[in-house]
Specification:
The complex is a heterodimer of chains A (116) and B (117).
Chain A (H helix, E strand, L loop, with lengths): L4 E3 L2 E4 L5 E6 L6 E8 L3 E9 L14 E5 L5 E5 L8 E8 L10 E2 L3 E5 L1
Parallel strand pairs in A: 2-10
Antiparallel strand pairs in A: 1-3, 3-7, 4-5, 4-8, 6-7, 8-9, 8-10
Chain B lengths: L2 E3 L4 E5 L4 E3 L2 E3 L4 E8 L5 E7 L5 E3 L5 E5 L4 E6 L8 E9 L10 E2 L3 E6 L1
Parallel strand pairs in B: 2-12
Antiparallel strand pairs in B: 1-4, 3-9, 5-6, 5-10, 7-8, 8-9, 10-11, 10-12
Classes of the chains: A mainly beta (116), B mainly beta (117).
């Protein structure tokens, strides 16, 4: 597609429920990133996928968080047993491979998650 | 460890005045440096980057930034601010000396720029 698409744009869920957030990267982009943006906390790295390599999961805050990327394209971030501190905007970004990759990421508009 | 510092949470300037948003970084080896802007309820948009070459880089919307290796800084500047420049600005860094051309960016906490009429 023309840009990085994230769905849903807003999600309100009850504490303890599981949620799935979806990201459709730009076609042909081999790298995909998830970040979390909390009020006053800046951007927190969560996970990074690059092609068929093992993902860099070093930013996932707990084992309630997981992500997968199917077919090298769409990615789903799953949060199990949501807690109120999970409330944030979850941003997805993708990047092309090759020397042009240094031109940075293209971000989606994010999913605003509210846990009540 | 890689890190980015944006020492000012907020910057306020009058329209027409020059603006500066500060950024310093810590990275192993040479850096790739980026500025992104975020408007309300939107994702981050790329503004400009430093990869190599001239220390002064020009980007979108009249913004520019100067890479200063000795001071490990990459301050964002604009000669004449507009009210429409009001947004949240993020500085980001990635180590250049890696086997892969890809990798995660390390972001600062962001600086809220407000330009008043």
């Amino acid at each position: 597609g023309a840009g990085v698409s994230q769905s849903p744009s807003n999600k309100v869920t009850e504490k303890g429920k599981d949620v799935e957030l979806r990201c459709d990267p730009i076609s042909g982009h081999t790298a995909l990133y998830w970040y979390r943006q909390s009020l006053g906390q800046g951007l927190e790295f969560l996970i990074y996928f690059q092609g068929n390599s093992a993902p860099d999961k070093s930013g996932l805050p707990s084992d309630r968080f997981s992500a997968e990327r199917t077919g090298g394209s769409v990615s789903t971030l799953t949060i199990q047993r949501t807690q109120q501190e999970d409330s944030a905007v979850y941003l997805c970004a993708s990047s092309a491979h090759g020397r042009l990759a240094n031109y940075g990421y293209t971000f989606g508009s994010g999913t605003r998650l509210t846990v009540v | 460890a890689q890190s980015v510092a944006q020492p000012e949470d907020q910057v306020n300037v009058a329209e027409g005045n020059p603006l500066t948003v500060k950024c310093t970084y810590s990275v192993s080896g040479n850096p790739y440096l980026f500025w992104y802007v975020q408007y309300p309820n939107r994702g981050l948009q790329f503004l400009l980057k430093y990869i190599t070459g001239d220390n002064l880089v020009k980007g979108s919307y009249g913004f520019e930034a100067e890479f200063n290796k000795s001071q490990t800084s990459f301050h964002l500047k604009k000669p004449s601010a507009l009210v429409s420049d009001s947004a949240l600005y993020f500085c980001a860094v990635r180590p250049a000396d890696r086997g892969s051309t890809l990798g995660r960016l390390y972001f600062g906490r962001g600086t809220q720029l407000t330009v008043w009429p």
